[in-house]
Specification:
162 residues, alpha+beta, five-stranded mixed beta sheet
């Protein structure tokens, strides 16, 4: 809710810290060992919401598509960026196991992160664990727009980015 216009807050704002507590409770209730460390302190509300959304979607996907027994969730600050990683050992063991990049969920998260200047990656590490990593700036950045490409509109012109 927005009170008098001086505060920016909506029902859609989410907290990474709150989402981490929820994730721990859900994983523990599902008899999954959860290691959770997201003690970052205050974050920009837009960054907090995007990272909380990544965490919620990541845990939901792991519960839905794997048979994980262990999950590690960590968030760290490094200079002007914050990183969130979710690692689980359930790759390829679930009844609905899917490739790490299939479906729309991760694509939507990539778009959300790109909108604040961040990025998302997913892979299977050397130990066979699924790893989802979100990196975002501490302060939202405008999305990077690609430079114009040569074509009829730009024919004969030279452009440079400074």
């Amino acid at each position: 809710m927005i009170s008098d216009g001086s505060e920016r807050s909506t029902y859609r704002d989410k907290s990474l810290s709150t989402e981490a507590c929820s994730a721990r409770a859900i994983l523990t209730a599902a008899d999954i060992t959860a290691e959770v460390d997201v003690t970052l302190g205050a974050l920009d509300p837009d960054i907090d919401t995007v990272l909380a959304t990544v965490l919620r979607e990541g845990v939901t996907n792991a519960l839905r598509h794997s048979s994980m027994r262990h999950c590690t969730i960590r968030a760290t600050r490094d200079g002007a960026h914050v990183s969130l990683s979710l690692v689980n050992d359930g790759v390829g063991r679930g009844p609905q196991a899917v490739a790490p990049d299939s479906g729309n969920g991760l694509g939507n998260l990539r778009l959300r992160l790109a909108a604040v200047g961040g990025h998302l990656s997913s892979d299977i590490d050397d130990e066979g664990n699924f790893r989802l990593t979100a990196v975002a700036p501490l302060v939202p950045q405008p999305p990077h727009e690609p430079a114009p490409t040569a074509g009829p509109r730009y024919a004969g012109r030279v452009s440079a980015t400074v």
